[in-house]
Amino acid sequence: MKLLHSLPPYNFAGLENASFDAASVVVLPVPYDGTASYGSGAKEGPHAIISASRYLELSDYETGANASKQGIFTLDELEPARGNVVETCKRVEDAITQILESGKFPLTFGGDHSVAIGCIRAAAKKHSDLSVLALDAHLDCWDEFEGSDHSHASVHARVQDITPSVAGLGVRESIVGYRSAGENELAFCKEHGVKTFSSRQLAKDFDGSLTTALEYLGENVYVTLDLDVLDPSIMPAVGTPEPDGLSYNSVVNILEKVFSSKKVVGMDVCELAPLQGNRAPDFTAAKLAYNALCLRQRD
Predict the structure, then answer these.
(1) Does position 170 have pLDDT exceeding 70, yes or no?
(2) What's the pLDDT score for residue 185?
(3) Which of 191, 212, 226, 274 is deepest in the core (most CB within 10 A)?
(4) What CATH number should be reported for the domain holding residue 48?
């Protein structure tokens, strides 16, 4: 895989790097925002998350779970193909494939959400029955957006191009937390069997909506987390913020439910575009990612 330089602090959570062979979790930073359409800066997200993660408490204050005991290895930044999102997604796919074939759990930091296309393709090659849980403010189901069919707004359209042997309509997906959707996207989801759950639905019946979303998915689940699923009051540092988002605790509760009820085979955290002078979003993103690893340890 093509790698850029290592930027201090190198390992996620400020840990001494486990060896690749001994690690259970491999972190892949992908500094790419070539398809950003509103606000740019997500290419700085991976380094900001890793920098903020130095200040995390390693034990979960509620459960005592300590994800650092799993062994975490952080790769150097993956070199994107500037101006070529298709090639960038292919590089991500190749890197995640190597991680999965080594028996590791891949945790990818984007970058704009187009990065997830490569991650999910790699996971689908490994798991023919793959399902996807997406936490996102948008449906991201445009077949083409601003001239690109691999845009951050086309993630789930490209996921539905994947046809595992057991899913004739494509990968099973539930998209949770959206509050922006074009008519074409809603029609796409209906046609392809993508289940959607808006933030308003969650506000009315959180437990029921989440249960329905997860029951639709198979055993092996990939989680893609676009940070704009959070309300802008706590996560303003994203490329395309939307009001009426989820709370931090709601997102953690969703992660807790999916990790406890499914086999989560990989995860990405995308779309952090750091804001100068406001480090809170960076730390929020880092803590969400680390909490997910703690939930994985409990599982």
Answers:
(1) no
(2) 87
(3) 226
(4) 3.40.800.10
